[in-house]
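Two entries, shown back to back:
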Amino acid sequence: MKNRKRRISSVLVALVCLVVTTLTMAQKKAAEKTPSQPGALKRKPPLVEVVHAKVRDLTRDLQITGEVVANRSVAVAATKEGPITYCPWREGDRVGAGEKLVEIEREIHQAEVRTARAALAVARARLADLRAGARPEEIARAEAAVQKWQATLDEARKTYQRQAELSEKDFTSRQSVDQASERVSVAKAELAAAEQNLRMLKAGPTATEIAVQEAAVEEAAARVALAEAHLAECVIAAPFDAVVTAVHVRAGDLAVPRAPLVEMYAPDSLVIRFSVPERFSAGLRQGMKLEALLDAFPRQTFPGEVVRMYPLLEANMRTRTVEATLQTEAALMPHQFARLTLHLDTVKNAVTVSADAVLETPEGAHIVFVVEENKTVRRKVEIGIEQDRMVQVTDGLLPGERVVVTGNEMLKNGAPVRIAGGGGNQSRQAGGAERPGAFPGGAGERKPSASRGTPNAPESGR
């Protein structure tokens, strides 16, 4: 047992010696390969690509989709029931405002109109006769009646006088005197009535009589208007210039109240309606410009402008409905699909760089690397809007300064660099075997800038 332990110990010692010897020889070989002078193998500065900051106009756009709709579209319906006698229209026909679309036959309403018109004519004739006053013949007849009763009264008085004298002498009875007195009273009453009638004929109708007859005329006219309105409901006319989109009946069909007969829309009321997300809704205004692409007209862009913004947000989607019209002629139809580019903001004379030049730090700040005398200067910048991958720099950069756009992922402030292509304005071509951004002895992973996907980048949404 003791001999076995000794053998194991000897083997372990031998292995340790072997390992130590191997490591010592490896260190000697490495030392022989290391040059005696420091800096004999210097690392080359990284190769970068730069561009000059430029001044240009930028526009912040919103990519959205919309639909062509008609602001004036109706489904014409009937208010009367009856057989249809006129409806020649088909889909695609154009009709003018006031043009007859459908006619329903209703003889009862025609008879009501004729009756009402006759009653109105009678009332008007009576009013005209009343206003004209008494005719000369009527006045002459009334005067003759007065004269007649005046003569009758005179004769009755004479008779009564004779009967009274005879009665005093007992030549006649008291009854004869009473009868003569009664005839005098009757003659007086008739004479008074005749005189009153004559005065009325000469004076003409009173204001009350004329007013009553005028009211009768107005009542008759109202009955005519009511009958004509019932009859007019049997003829349905186009409310505006329109294009027929659907016809649900033909001549001979039975019209039913409130059932749609013909559908149509006004071509001049076509607009593009779309929805804007809530975060952009407050900045909308009439007259904002946009471009529209329609699937019906490929490879054509139509300029347009905003003409209406709804005063509230859609409750479920939290979007604001907007309407726009095109500024060039286009054969639009309802429900066409439109792809829109809405210009939200425009900045004049903005200092801009490529979006590749802007990096975001872990703290959320934005930086660029400016090349000065072949060394990098780390600059903190403030950015604005972005268009076509060109970012507005509102602070921290001057026009014309050279900014690193490729190879800036692992740069540090003050680091020497080599500029691809000799440092021209746009050095994006391959200038040799070395790739911009490659570091001798290693490579870094590029960190995307906040400007690529920040709220300042072009938005899209329905």
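entry 2 starts here
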Amino acid sequence: MKNVFKRCLKLITLFDNSNQSNIDSNYIKDNIPEYRNLSDGAFKRSFERDKLLLKEVGYNLEYENDKWNLDDGYKLKGLNIVNDLKKNKDFNFEQFATTYSIIKRYLSPQFNLEQSLKIIPKLSIAAREKRRVSFIYNENLRKVYPLGLRYHTGTWYLGAEDNKVIKTFKISKIKDLKIGSKDNLHEIEVKEFNFSWEYSAQEVSVEFKTIRNLHNVYKSLVNFVVINTHNEESFKHLKIKTRDHYGLIKYLMLTEAEITKISKKDATALQEAINGI
């Protein structure tokens, strides 16, 4: 799957950097290394699969054969909307892409909603109407004021005030949810809340080198602070610090990052996180 993803990234880059109005299949095969050594039949099958995958995320590779056009070939469509949105200086493209991927997943006819996630609308209403809720969490009864919901690395969390302390609860672990009948029970205003483990986990610092395109795709998997960074051709060098051990591990694996410097203490902390996965 990683090879498929890399091919798709290179396809988008190829069309984005090309000065030609249309690109024929021979040009595509010659300029994508993963296609270059394939037989014609294998290339056709791989290319068709990649076209379908790109279409799933909003990029249409369409063949144009217009008798009035001298350059027959493929044209990449689906970029205009995104480019128009990017022109707005207040537009957060990363947030838009994350929200789009979440919504697309849940609207997909192939997606079966987990039973535990069906309580999300109820918690959202309780937070908006400032009601108190109760539920069983890790076999303990909790009575809290919901403040907001957060989606991170494939998991939904509830941020809530529990005995005047803002805590984070994993939605999948909440059982026997009950919503209070009274609204407007508090005046708490919280625009952003942190995961509970962000306070308790050891902060680690790591330096590494990774492919820049893969970094751009997977950087939202981990909460981190950049200390130093610079680009070298298609690679990105970073020095970061984070308490998000699991997010960092997923990011490093998916981006095939090469760690260049990490202390023994921080390496042990990540190893302990790996052992706990």
